[in-house]
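Data's thin. Show one?
=====
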Amino acid sequence: MAWTGLLAAAAPAQGAEHPLLPGCPEPLTPECADRLEGQALQTHAPLARRESGALRLVPPQAASTPPGVRWLGPLADSGLQLLAEFPAGQPPVFRLAGEGAPPLALPGPAWPAPGGRLLISVGPLAGGSAAVVLIGRVETRWRVLLRQEAAAGAQLTFVGWRSDAAAARLQWSCRGSPALAVQLRDGPFGWDWFPALPAGCPTQR
């Protein structure tokens, strides 16, 4: 198929290390999140604190923070903060805190673009497939610009933002195949993929 050459030409998928998750395994574990929260609370004391075990955010969230949520710190100059929670038997779920933060669960840690007006989250879903969520700041609010799941069995790995924040670089891989380099780009009709994401995994022979 036409994918074969593209897949073979690309290097194996290598994701970047998230700046708020140094030294942690993937997926993030509660033990590593506990260590990171302790460090973040010391470094960014004005933004959050623990009182009698409860997490207090400044300014407070519109809804109370569920028990077991870890605070991982501010996301560069986006004005938002990163939270992680750990549903039993499922991958960790990431959420955003801060003024105008959207109340949605993310499949992976949010990566801020240069300039702080875009965030992208890439990671596995509970059912085993991968998803990408792109969020943009519009005046004082954040809204979802794109949410898409990869084909069954495929994985997406975040590589980095382009310096002008007009494209996010990712890698698409499927069942151990070499990775395909793709970009999520800001085009004349909105955000789209280049090249287009494959509709499914190549047939194994």
Observations:
- The first helix runs from residue 3 to 9.
- The radius of gyration is 18 Å.
- Helices lie at 3-9, 30-43.
- The longest strand covers residues 130-138.
